[in-house]
């Protein structure tokens, strides 16, 4: 029986590279592309099948920043599949990133220059907005939409005899200082992306505590510093042209500069081959690249505690109760 892999945000960047690499590892997989843009997903599907004709590739339309869309897609997936073996929770946004020029130039002449480029700590702020669901867009897209997806797909994920894996795309930019339990949506801050990725780390830990006995395991990954559609818009093309040689040199001193989506998927592909029961739920798995371009997986203990993770999980459950009041399930009569 084919293993089924669901990938959100599969039409570009890390998601697209991941689908290609997974089929290179096992061309008999069934890969389901969970994307907002169906036409782009169809082009990706055709390309994957041309390279791997033995595979199965399907598409489900979903916008994780819209809860109606998430519930509709979940319903469709439950009709198609009896189980999901892997769910890569990869879709995410960093809207309107603004570079702190002063912090950049100060960092260039400090001892923290490598750390600054590796994590973007203090460099980027974003302008968030409220979605049609009344939630902060970054929080809903990067965290809550995926959380609802998991809740809806629970019947396909919880099988004690054969575990399923959730694999989240997190970040080295997930900073504890940017997250607060009193403001889990980061509505009062300027770094919603960092806050959302720390929330992902917390949620993964809480999911393991609550779902491991039922056969569901969760891990988090950082794909490293890459030049993708998300990051390329932060700076003008000329600045990227000037910075890239410096970044290539920095790879000899720090492993975070994976630079390409292909390299960035190293840890995500590595987790595909691991027994989830053997993984440490408090570890973040990092895609890493040497100065000479060799890829490998590094590990990092997450800067969090399980009690905070559980409190955050309970907050999400309470928020879920409130938002479900306003959501009409597709199969319910109006």
Which features would summarize this protein structure in a list?
globular; alpha/beta; eight-stranded mixed β-sheet
3D architecture notes:
By secondary structure, the chain is an alpha/beta fold. The protein is built from 13 helices and 10 strands. A hairpin with a 5-residue loop joins β9 (283-289) and β10. α3 (67-80) packs parallel to α6 (137-152) and α6 (137-152) packs parallel to α8. It is globular. 44% of the residues are buried.
Detail the topology: elements first, then pairings.
Blueprint: E1 4-8, H1 13-25, E2 30-35, H2 38-51, E3 56-61, H3 67-80, E4 86-89, E5 98-99, H4 101-108, H5 113-119, E6 124-125, H6 137-152, H7 154-157, E7 164-169, H8 192-211, E8 216-222, H9 229-232, H10 237-250, H11 261-264, H12 266-272, E9 283-289, E10 295-301, H13 306-324
Parallel strand pairs: 1-2, 1-4, 2-3, 4-7, 7-8, 8-9
Antiparallel strand pairs: 5-6, 9-10
Helix pairs in contact: 3-6, 6-8, 8-13
Q: Could you give a short account of the major beta sheet?
A: 8 strands, mixed
Distance between the termini: 39 Å
- What is the overall shape? globular
Distinct helical segment count: 13
**In the CATH hierarchy, what is the superfamily?**
NAD(P)-binding Rossmann-like Domain
- CATH structural fold name: Rossmann fold
Work out the helicity level.
40-55%
* Oligomer designation: single chain
């Amino acid at each position: 029986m084919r293993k089924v892999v669901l990938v959100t945000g599969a039409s570009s960047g890390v998601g697209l590279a991941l689908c290609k690499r997974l089929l290179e590892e096992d061309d008999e997989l069934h890969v389901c592309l969970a994307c907002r843009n169906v036409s782009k997903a169809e082009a990706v599907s055709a390309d994957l099948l041309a390279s791997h004709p033995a595979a199965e590739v399907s598409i489900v339309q979903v916008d994780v920043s819209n809860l109606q869309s998430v519930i509709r897609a979940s319903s469709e997936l439950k009709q198609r599949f009896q189980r999901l073996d892997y769910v890569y929770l990869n879709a995410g946004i960093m809207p309107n990133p603004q570079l702190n020029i002063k912090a950049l130039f100060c960092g260039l002449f400090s001892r923290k220059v490598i750390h600054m480029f590796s994590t973007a700590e203090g460099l980027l702020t974003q302008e968030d907005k409220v979605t049609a669901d009344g939630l902060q867009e970054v929080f809903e897209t990067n965290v809550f939409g995926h959380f609802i997806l998991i809740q809806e797909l629970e019947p396909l994920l919880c099988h004690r005899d054969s575990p399923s894996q959730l694999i989240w795309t997190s970040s080295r930019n997930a900073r504890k200082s940017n997250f607060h339990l009193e403001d889990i949506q980061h509505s009062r801050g300027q770094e919603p992306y960092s806050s959302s990725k720390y929330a992902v780390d917390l949620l993964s830990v809480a999911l393991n505590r609550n779902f491991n006995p039922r056969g569901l395991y969760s891990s988090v990954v950082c794909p490293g510093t890459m030049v993708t559609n998300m990051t390329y818009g932060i700076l003008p093309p000329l600045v990227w042209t000037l910075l890239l040689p410096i970044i290539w040199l920095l790879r000899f001193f720090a492993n975070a500069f994976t630079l390409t989506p292909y390299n960035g998927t190293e840890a995500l592909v590595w987790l595909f081959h691991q027994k989830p029961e053997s993984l440490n739920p408090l570890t973040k798995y990092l895609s890493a690249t040497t100065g000479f371009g060799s890829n490998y997986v590094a590990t990092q203990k997450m800067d969090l505690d399980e009690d905070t993770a559980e409190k955050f999980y309970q907050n999400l459950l309470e928020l879920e109760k409130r938002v479900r009041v306003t959501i009409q399930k597709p199969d319910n009569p109006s």
